[in-house]
Specification:
single chain; 371 residues; alpha+beta; nine-stranded mixed β-sheet; three-stranded antiparallel β-sheet; 16 helices; 40% helix
Amino acid sequence: MDITRLENLFAGKACMPLDVPVLHPADAFLNTAGEAFRKSVFITHRADGEMLCLRPEFTIPVLAHHLRGTNGAARYSYRGTVFRQRPHVDDGRPQEFEQAGVESFAENDFAKADADMLLLALDAVRLYPEIDPIVSIGDPAFFEALVGPIGLPTIWCDRLLRAFGDDTLLERQLKRMVATDESAVAHLDEELAPLVDADDLLGLMRLIEARMDDHGLLGAGARSPGDIATRLLEKARADVRVSQETAETCRAFLRLECSADLVGETLGDFASGHGVDFAEPFAEFQARMAQGLLEADVPIRFSARFGRRLDYYTGFVFEIHDRRHPGRGPVAGGGRYDRLSELLGGPSVPAVGFSLWLDRLAGGNGVAGDD
């Protein structure tokens, strides 16, 4: 396809074309994009020692550009090569490939902005007539609405929410939270154990300080009583175990899949059986669907477990696949990432966007979808 048609499509939707450099300071990517993504970044150094990287994606540099300029609403389009290494893998897939996309900032009607990005991505995919699109959507807000009310301790809520979007890591955490291995603090004596059980930091510090003083360890280069007490309580909190039934409730939720028009019925049935209230995230879902998604003339599937592996995604996510080549990976993907601007040291900025995998749209394999 003539790439000019894609550029004209973006221009017609008030997207400002942006030329993004290939080399960037590496810290922004390494500190915000997640462990799996960090391993794929090509690193180099300036003569003065500053760590740089080849551009692994466009979202972060496009947002950084926006933060240096206007504070108002803006949409940017981009196109170019991204670079991702595949350590210890030699399966013929490239380590550099072409992407294009759009990023939208500071649009305060979240539902409309989310829907606009998905509809624009669909319009872009339809410029390639050989693609037969199907859309997958998800939203971690539904999982967040689940984990608290079913009685999960805060530490396990946090761990599961951080793992959401990575099926392997999420299952590992679900198994870990019901494990019956011996507690890391089971060896504590009859004086220490009650203080740990009561989460009594001050009492624990005093007892540890007295014992260290008895053995001449205070001020001798050892860890402070406060450090030791804090670490003991952290271990105790981490040792909180959850029932197998609660873990199975999480798994049952994560197995939910349906067409977009049946989300209310599907989640309603689950909620009534497990005492969960999905009203708030479902209202947001309905508002988004009402912005033209119900008339998109393409199959839209909701998956309760679908999220992004990149740490900066915070809400609604989507992918577009080619039904003729389901194993090839997404031809487009995106979603909402409102926290990224703060992670980059800027003010809070509503943000949503998408990327197109141009190699896949043109019939190639590209790289397994990371964003």
